[in-house]
User: Fold these one by one.
Assistant:
Number 1:
Amino acid sequence: MKVAVAGCCHGALDKMYETLELLQRRHNVRPDLLLCCGDFQAVRNEADLRCMAVPAKYRHMQTFYRYYSGEKKAPVLTVFIGGNHEASNHLQELPYGGWVAPNIYYLGYAGVVRFRGVRIGGISGIFKSHDYRKGHFECPPYNQQTIRSAYHVRNIEVFKLKQLKRPIDIFMSHDWPRSIYHYGNKKQLLKMKSFFRQEVESNTLGSPAASELLQHLKPTYWFSAHLHVKFAAFMQHETNSKEELPKATKFLALDKCLPHRDFLQIIDVEHDPNAGDSLEYDAEWIAVLKATNNLVNVTQSTWNMPEKNGLHAKWDYSVTEEAIKEVLEELNHDLKIPCNFTLTAACYDPTKPQKNMEPVHTINPQTTEFCAQFGLTDINDRIQQAKEEGSGRGECEDEEEEEMDSTGSAEEPSEYNTDNSGLSSFNPDEIMLDEEGGDEDLSTCSVDPSPDHPPEFSTGFSDIRIMPDSMAVSSDDATDSNNEELEKSGGSKQVEEKSPTERSLKRISGDENGNTGVKKIKRRNQAIYAAEDEDKTD
């Protein structure tokens, strides 16, 4: 089947679906499924905008609300993960996943589903070590810290995913797995984005949690976004035994949804021709959720997942075939995810704007039904209980903001030594952009296709590329021959990020010599947001 993969769409659903329709009209290619790798921005109303961690001037309604209200319907089944620019209050209603609109499904904090026999997994958010070991304690109305920590990856989600034993076909993360740049055209990457050099050479660019999952799950495909550039890599995994067959992952990072940007990829994925067209639960994943349910934490307390270190009576929460069979029997072998989308908030009305609408903490009926069916803890219900008891565990009460550093909270011990998610020690989403600053030429964020491998479509149709059957990318990219091999494979490589040193200079210095001047936040931040001034997609 044909699967379309998109990077950060930033709420521009009309643009994304129109591009797919154009693809069908011009080239008779109709994707069966659309995957989006975060920054989806499922904004329903003005209150949702207030829960999105972006500067106020970039908070625009975009077009998701039309699909939420039923005015429009997604023309293709869409499955997405969360990023770091989301209506966090909306997505928080569905911690285990669910429908945000008809035909548009959110995978939750972490999740695995099936479509036509293809197993699709994903993890939402970005990595920040100071929040990694906390529970999901946040709820609206958020303060300046929780509006950001709400989308930070937690160790419990990684732990759950690491219990999976069965093969994964496709996996999505918002930020890149750390070290993946070593398996692509690193030379060209650094030529295009020299400010990445320090992080690449110190191996601190990307998410260590995502890297851990990549090495454990070894999916056939791994898709990411976040850095608003396109980059391809091919990772050959080490085998644990002589009997184990070698596995490899084709990695692709996608650009964001903008006119004349290469933000969509079409791939052919082997599927079960006898499977139905409905999105389905994954029985092993449901069994893992049941097995790890007692680990759910809704406090700010930091804690480590069980491991084989003599401190835990149980550390292996992987499930048996018997446990999977029990899930199937509970569902009468009908794994179809019910189409039980429900409106849980008022929809934006352009004729009656409500700029002072406040967000509220909502328990979604989909989550209530899911938890009741499988005997799981409703995280939002637990947070609500803590709030009502006045314990403060939910962090929902008004409180004075503490003195914070630029990362948003004090650093705490972690199993990871660094705090990078492709954003390094300075997280651009946690710093207000300057109202003024030099404009960035966004055209510099793309690498032209190799003349040896021209794009599948006409030059006027630059929003989509067809992925070749293989991406022959060598991990040793020091030689010209290997670089040429990668270019012939059709993968474009670019990233938009800075090293910690260079980013701090740009933010707090007037020049590279450290002379203090007007705070400047350029390149990545303006690459994320400045396009809004051009075509209102951010």
Note: Residues 2-390 form one domain.
Number 2:
Amino acid sequence: MELLPRSPGEFGSARYWDRFFRQRGQRPFEWYGAFPELCPVLHKYVRPRDKVLVVGCGNSELSEQMYDVGMCEDIVNIDISDAVIRQMQERSGSTRPKMSYLLMDMLQMDFPDAHFQVVLDKGTLDALLTDEEEATLAKVDQMFAEISRVLQVGGRYLCVSLAQAHVLKKAVDYFSQEGWIVRVHQVASSGDKQQFVLPVFVYVMTKFRKIPGSAPQILEICPEEQDKPMRMESVERLVAAVKDRQHYALLCSQISKTPCREQVSLDLCDKESGKPRYTLHVVDSPSVKPSRDNHFAIFIIPQGRETEWLFGTEEGRRQLAASAGFGRLVTVALHREQHYEGMAGIQTELSGKVMELAPPGLPARQQVPFLSVGGDIGVRTVRHCDTSPLSGEYVIEDVKGDGTCYFRRLIFLRNRNVVQSEARLLAPTPLPGQKKRRKDKKKSSPAEPPGAIDKSYLCCEHHKAMVAGLCLLGGPDALPGELAVLVVGLGGGSLPLFVHDYFSQAHVAVVEIDPSMLEVATRWFGFSQGDRMKVHVSDGLDYVAKLSAEAPAQFDAIMFDVDSKDLTVGMSCPPPAFVEKPFLQKVKTILKPEGVFVLNLVCRDTRLKESVLATLRDVFPLLYARRIEGEVNEILFCQPSPKGRCDPAELRTRARALEGALRQPGRPWDSSYVLADMLQAVHIL
């Protein structure tokens, strides 16, 4: 028995539907959307005294179920198939006397104007709008015009649909231009196995009198039946929001059946603002042998730690999942713009949603554990938000690290997963006679605010390596005397501050193109200028070019730690112009013959990186490289003369001598910072 049409156009043919319902017999045919799923939405828009028209009723049980539960009794059902109308009249005529079935074409209805309060369409528009041919679109316009004619002002057209993009856009375009309010509901799934993977939607178009002129469109979406509607600014945005939910449903269907070969990433957005609230990564560990208790777990990343290697990289998350011992781990990152009510609140909020990401084979009613570091959600305090004309929006935030330490961070929101600058905060010192305040265990925030910046601590591994490279300036037993150092790129100022404070005879010139960053470093990161520290607000390219023409060979060390504002290039540090050969030759010109040029290179494009290294080798005869473990950063130490060549063992000897000179009594030193270790993996290119 062949029920499918030979062409999409047959969906509009009475002959096809007569044949379809004769062959199918008495069995009800539901395209999609069972009554228990649709009922919460229908209850909002169908009142018991409403006169309801159902177009393209078929032999669906929807009208009968609405009648039987008392939702509404004055229901008129129409269809172009004589066979199905006779079938439905026989089925409901005696048991539902107030409901009628009429043979009628919805494109040419016999009803008077403004006759109904509700028009209900379950799959009829989807069946009619199978393509975007001119003849099809003309039929759809005729359908909409007839629905508009028979509806009263204030009446509702309820259209149950799978919301293919062309169907949704056509409906929303037509009725919004007529001045109607358009709201799209996503129908909540019952959890049973569905005929369709895609979610079902109900378009609710409410008729208003058309106001002459350009009245604002009112477009809304309700992600689930209990949610408040969210206003959409355009038809395109509404269609995109529906498409996002369809993609999510497809994703959930896919990963519920098969393990993820690659990590899956998605954002869950705040219902009020529409901004991302949680970022989820689904990580499967094929090596974990499944048992009843290790199928699935959720890991809440503490606030402010989402950029750490373990949580912020694919390899880190893979190791986290394997060490946690679960077949599937969903990591959850919390966004700084959002407020969270502790671990219990997050668990309540996410429990239903994360179960949609459960792996295949999860036992029924299996409890899924929520994990974290130390059992809490961490602490993040945003200290300052602003916008720079050059760097865009940025935030200064204090976060709790691993253990009891707090850190201050600068984040550029155009690249929010990268910490631009970071400094450790000293524990606050009580005033004389002041008792230490006890912690309130019920509060998730720190009992006391963090103190001043710890200038003795370099948070960034690449900064530690850059400082260690200064051992190339001295012999194996000597610390260089007076040093002239140029640092291009200020950020929070940690690097130039450390050089200034620990190399007591160093004169440091810093070049920073963005005046906002000088204000940030001074106000929030403890940076200050003095006799041996000067900041020049200038483009580094122009500053170096000017010096090369005026005063060559004046710096012992030149350090580049400058980010690129162009995120389309596969190199985020430095900007490409800083590693072009003519400019590098100018850098070499202002560097003393025995000096060292230290470059922080962050390049994900392999070909581009090879090109940069080749250019550096052309300009600087001696080139050392130090890769930062777990990061993309690679620190390059470039010298203008091959005479100072050191093998790795000699480099580490020099680093130990330099560290011994820097570690003076009464001067704080981070015991974990061993200069020789920072040069352990250095190799000559």
Note: The chain has 19 helices and 27 strands.
